[in-house]
Every structure is written in structure tokens, then in C-alpha cells.
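Researcher: Here's the sequence for the chain we discussed earlier.
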Amino acid sequence: MLIHEQMLHSPNRTDNPEEADLFYVPVYMTCYRSLLQYAARVKLRDRVGILRGRGLSVEQTLFEFFHSLLDFLKDEYPYWDRQGGRDHVFTFTHDCE
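Model: Thanks. This is the structure I predict for it:
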């Protein structure tokens, strides 16, 4: 069984945010980073628009992306404010290069 399926069927999971102790935020930064690196390597920056045509590095683009995600969570989901985001869990996995 995949990890995602295990999480969905876990007896510790709740659909009621009032009962939740933690909120898992499924963001796949490694996938986005790989896409950015590929785009930078084959010089698709402007054509694909991934780096927004502003000459940003991969790291700068990831930084902006993550901060945009945080702004979205703060604006759209009221449970962020419950503990200032301290009860939100992010996973950032990546292999060494």
C-alpha cells in the first residue's frame, strides 16, 4: 500500500479540522525543483514561463513558490491562524546531488 493510501485510511486521520492536531500539507517541492532545473538546463525559461522570465535562479523561484503557498494557506484556510501554522506539517524530501 502506498504511503498516501495509508494516510487516507489511517484511524488517526479525521475529516473534521476541529478535531485535528496536525495538518499535512502535500506540497511536492522536489518535483517542482526538478522541473525548474530541467527548464533551466534546456533554456525553456521564457517559453515555458517557469522562471517567470525574470532571470530568477531555481532556488529563488522555489523560495517565491513556497511563500506564495504560505500566503494561500493563510488567506484561504482559517486553521492556519489557530496556532500560527505550528500545527501544519510539510515534508521536503530530496536526494543529494
